[in-house]
Amino acid sequence: MTGDRSNTSLKQATTLDLNTRFRVVSRSSVNGNNLERNYQFRLNTRSSIDLQLTNLQANADVQLLNRNGRVIRQSQLNGIRDENINVTLNEGLYYVRVHPRSQTLSTRYALKMSANPDRAGNNLSAARAFSVNDTTRLFRDYVGLSDSTDFYKFTLNRRRDVSLNLEGFQAGANLILRDGDGAVVSRAVNNGTNIGELTRTLEAGTYYIQVARRGTNNTRYALSVSAAQPEGTSIYDGSYIPQLFAASGQNLAFGQFPLPPSPILPPAFTSDEAQFASQTLGTNSVTLDTSTIIQASGREKEGYAGYSNHTFNPVSNSLQPVSNSFPTLDRTAGFYLSFQAALNAESSNPNRAGFSVLVVSSDGQNGIELGFKSDRIFAQSDSFTEAETAAPTRFSLSDTVNYELAVIGDRYRLFANNSPILSGSLRQYNFNPAQSDPPLPDSFNPYTTSNFLFFGDNTDQGSANVTLGPISVY
Fold first, then answer.
1. Interatomic CA distance for residues 455 and 339, integer angstroms
2. Ranges of H-type helices in 67-161
3. How far apart are CA 337 and CA 365, in angstroms?
4. Which helix (H) or strand (E) holds 261?
5. Are 348 and 444 in contact (CB under 8 A)?
6. How far is CA 443 from the centre of its chain?
7. CA–CA gap between residue 71 and residue 88 (Å, rounded)
8. Phi, psi of 435, rounded to the nearest 5 degrees
9. Among 32, 42, 25, residue whose Cα is nearest residue 8
10. What's the CA gap between 294 and 303, in Å, rounded?
């Protein structure tokens, strides 16, 4: 707008629309006859205001006033230097007044203003908090003279690959990732208008993102944030049915006790009443039914069957790894077991479960066994009684559920579809193979086997029909 002639008082103030325009320029003049020019603008949300009075031929000053006409900021430089006001304001009505330094001075001027919504905090304690997952979150804001830095805050409840992208700006800006104490984890310095990117694998905890003005630059920006499960090592991809003797490159083998009679197996491992558990290959999954091992009426719960990264060698009478390249389940460094499962049917006695997941860390002492019953998931105590329990409310165990078991230090935590449902301490299980029913060889003790993993039915007091999908460790 040019040549404003009637805005010589607050009541006659010219309206500037800063909510729909990034930059407003008003050209006019002040002199002995028009000692001041007044403008008004309304903010619909908290915003960073950058105001500049420029193109002066004589000394003039600028003031920022609140709705009551009280001066809240002003710039009064000597000479014809540009006058600047940079401030963050809450929503409301405001005025701008331009006036010459004295009545004898006359000058034309250009009034330039921009308003940028300020939704992020300006320090760690005021950081804008948000939740993050594999769906990208997008934030648009501004850094400049009036708002030199923005902070965001997010919390991870487990290890994640976090990606940050900063783009959509007119000038450079700095992107900084900080930990919960404010220490710098990583940074991306951007000198121009190219995209600033950061990708880091982060452990559970609280983190901050800082977007900082670079040099004298003023710029809008778009910050995108996402957190995804690390790729990890695939243990099972659902493309095959695991067998008693795993093929090269496979990490899981099928195991069962007792087995149908076989001339190559010791009689202690077989039974005339046994047949192989039912296995059916599906789409990226295998369905295991352990109720078919012993088919005599009333004995459907008998027999063990499942999948493990170890297999029993009857010749050496010991458990041996299926693959020497299996990842180390180091509880000190922390690891995560990701698996997909649907419990189609289950029957078991108290303190037992038809489907169980057992993990023993690389120290061969500390582990956790989770039992999946038809209506709940529980952790086995060290003496094999039901301990911590979770009854699902947001999903059904018969659904295809994405589970993640986090093991860090001496603790475990189970997630279902990204939500934590169960947690507690690792155990050192008191298991005597000789006292098992039926008895097992003394060397068959998975609970003291380093780096051990099992999915299936490991009790004579339960059976299940379960569909197992992809499994990975990261």
1. 10
2. none
3. 18
4. none
5. no
6. 42
7. 15
8. -95, 5
9. 32
10. 7
Tell me, what amino acid is at 162? Answer: V
Neighbour-count burial for 267-281, b at 16+ CB within 10 Å, e otherwise: eebbbeebeebebee
**Strands laid side by side in the 386-390 sheet:** 253-257, 304-308, 452-457, 355-360, 367-372, 377-380, 386-390
Q: Tell me: pLDDT of 193 over 80.
A: no
State pTM to two decimals. Answer: 0.74
Structure tokens at 385: 């009684």
> Contact, 337 vs 471, CB < 8 A?
yes
Locus of tokens 């993050």: 132
83 residue type, one letter: E
User: How distant is the alpha carbon of residue 112 from its chain centre?
Assistant: 42
DSSP lists the bridge partners of residue 360 as 367, 452
Helix (H, G, I), strand (E, B) or coil at 208: strand
Residues linked to residue 372 through DSSP beta bridges, in sequence order = 355, 377
Amino acid at 411: R
For 86-99, write each residue's pLDDT tens digit: 898 999 999 999 99
In the chain, DSSP finds a helix count (H) and a strand count (E) of 0, 35
423, burial (CB in 10 Å: exposed 0-12, middle 13-18, buried 19+): middle
For residue 472, list its beta bridge partners.
234, 338
The Cα 67–Cα 63 span in angstroms is: 13
Q: How far apart are CA 371 and CA 343, in angstroms?
A: 11
Q: Is 195 exposed, middle or buried (0-12, 13-18, 19+ CB in 10 A)?
A: middle
3-state secondary structure of 433: helix
Q: Decide if 467 contacts 456 (C-beta within 8 A).
A: no
Q: In this predicted model, what pLDDT tens digit does every residue of 8-54 receive, in sequence order?
A: 789 899 999 987 766 778 899 998 778 899 999 999 988 889 899 99
Distance CA(406)–CA(419), nearest Å, equals: 12
Q: On the CB side of 74, how many CA atoms lie within 13 Å of its CA? A: 15
